[in-house]
Design goal:
It is a single chain. The chain has 416 residues and is α+β, with helices and mostly antiparallel strands. It folds into three domains: 88 residues, Phosphorylase Kinase, domain 1 (2-Layer Sandwich), CATH 3.30.200.20; 184 residues, Transferase(Phosphotransferase) domain 1 (Transferase(Phosphotransferase), domain 1, Orthogonal Bundle), CATH 1.10.510.10; 96 residues, TATA-Binding Protein, CATH 3.30.310.80. It is built from 15 helices and 15 strands. The strands form four sheets. The protein has a six-stranded antiparallel β-sheet with strand order 11-12-13-14-10-15, covered by helices on one side. β4 and β5 form a beta hairpin. It starts with 13 loop residues before the first strand and ends with a strand. InterPro entries: Kinase-like_dom_sf, NAF/FISL_domain, NAF_dom, Prot_kinase_dom, Protein_kinase_ATP_BS, Ser/Thr_kinase_AS. Keywords: ATP-binding, Kinase, Nucleotide-binding, Serine/threonine-protein kinase, Transferase. Pfam families: NAF (PF03822), Pkinase (PF00069).
Length: 416
């Protein structure tokens, strides 16, 4: 790509290059970081295409949330999310090797190569499960290869997290790709997220080794019937060890289906297996902040999405409807000092009380117990914080006359 200065680059940071792919709601471009020269992939989403599609919005929110936290050598890395008034830019790791599906389309793989990719797949899926993340749409099209031909799992848009599990201990949302879907999903009685991922891993392993799907039929209902009954046949060229493993992966009974721990002990799988070590400190970007209960550093997307003028908050965060007015002040001060000034102002007012929700979030209540002001502090950088203030209509005097002047004695740099 031809060199561009930062002034002509996207957000003065990324130089957009050729189109890599195009979907129903997004386009993906190759791009380059102007400062470092690193190649990235940028998913470009126009807000206008999301307005009336709650499911699509939910998928994007979920994908960003999961990928921003997940750190593993065999997952596609999300670097940051940026936005303008009309467009969202999701900046991702650029995986040069393309889809694993393209390799399989040329013919079946050797058992040794199947084992390599299956070991990497099991390693990353097991890592996700240990952190309460279930992919729910594993298939060769969502498995990419890097320049060293190592696996990278992508597309977490249909993933579920442990918080979505119902009181019966199961997930209930119907999702997945027909040929890779587990039989218990077809039964519509709830399912274990880990078990359906294991089934999909089994289908993927079969496809890699055979070159075709284990359950296939031009008629969708016939294909579902085969899946439900577990009707498949391994080709004669598969080794006995591989056949045994596939029979346990594609067990239609989720309670007897092989577990991740058992897969790792299987003789066919274990040959040459090296478990990828992932440091806990690298798994979740915000883990340390959460454990220490200190304010989380905000990236550019966090700040942009908070702006009511851009109206992106409805896409990625819940709106607090109990408040009508929102103001944000950027202050050159520590979060602790800001909260001390809020407490000082509230005490001076006398007729109000503070209720702490989180370490850097409080609500100020009137004598009747009604919440008048809600405040939360976010760290913008080592030097600055953003103070978000929410007030009910007609109840902004406490903020505007008492608290805000105290904060503005410091070097406030922006209000919006």
């Amino acid at each position: 790509m031809a060199a561009l200065s930062s002034e002509t680059a996207l957000f003065q940071k990324y130089e957009l290059g050729r189109l890599l792919g195009c979907g129903a709601f997004a386009k993906v471009y190759l791009a380059r970081d102007v400062a470092t020269g690193q190649e990235v992939a940028i998913k470009v989403i126009h807000k206008s295409r999301l307005r009336n599609d709650a499911n699509l919005i939910a998928n994007i929110k979920r994908e960003i949330s999961i990928m921003s936290k997940l750190r593993h050598p065999h997952t596609v890395r999300l670097y940051e999310v940026l936005a303008t008034r009309n467009i969202i830019y999701i900046v991702l790791e650029y995986v040069k090797g393309g889809e694993l599906f393209a390799m399989v389309a040329k013919g079946r793989l050797t058992e040794a190569l199947c084992r390599k990719y299956f070991q990497q797949l099991v390693g990353v899926v097991s890592h996700c499960h240990s952190r309460g993340i279930y992919h729910r749409d594993l298939k060769p099209e969502n498995l990419l290869l890097d320049e060293d031909e190592n696996l990278k799992v992508s597309d977490f848009g249909l993933s579920a997290i442990r918080d979505q599990v119902h009181s019966d201990g199961l997930l209930h949302t119907l999702c997945g790709t027909p040929a890779y879907v587990a039989p218990e999903i077809l039964a519509k009685r709830g399912y274990d997220g880990a078990k359906i991922d294991i089934w999909s891993c089994g289908v993927i392993l079969f496809v890699l080794a055979a070159g075709y799907l284990p359950f296939n039929d031009p008629n969708l209902m016939n294909m579902y019937r085969k899946i439900y009954k577990g009707e498949f046949r391994c080709p004669k060229w598969m080794s006995p060890g591989l056949k045994r493993l596939l029979s346990r992966l594609l067990d239609t009974n989720p309670s007897t289906r092989i577990t991740m721990e058992e897969i790792k002990l299987d003789p066919w799988f274990a040959k040459g297996y090296k478990n990828t070590k992932v440091r806990e400190s690298d798994c979740f970007a915000f883990a340390a902040a959460e454990q220490e209960k200190r304010p989380v550093d905000m990236n550019a997307f966090d700040i942009i999405s908070m702006s009511s003028g851009l109206d992106l908050s409805g896409l990625f965060q819940e709106k607090h409807v109990s408040f009508e007015d929102v103001e944000r002040v950027t202050v050159e001060e520590s979060p602790k000092k800001v909260m001390e000034k809020v407490v000082e102002a509230a005490k001076a007012e006398g007729r109000v009380s503070l209720r702490q929700k989180k370490e850097w979030e409080v609500e100020i209540e009137g004598q009747n117990g009604n919440v008048l002001v809600g405040m939360e502090v976010y760290r913008l950088s080592e030097k600055y914080v953003v103070v978000e203030v929410k007030t009910k209509s007609g109840e902004s005097r406490l903020w505007s006359d008492k608290i805000r002047p105290l904060l503005m004695q410091e070097a406030a740099v922006a209000c919006y």
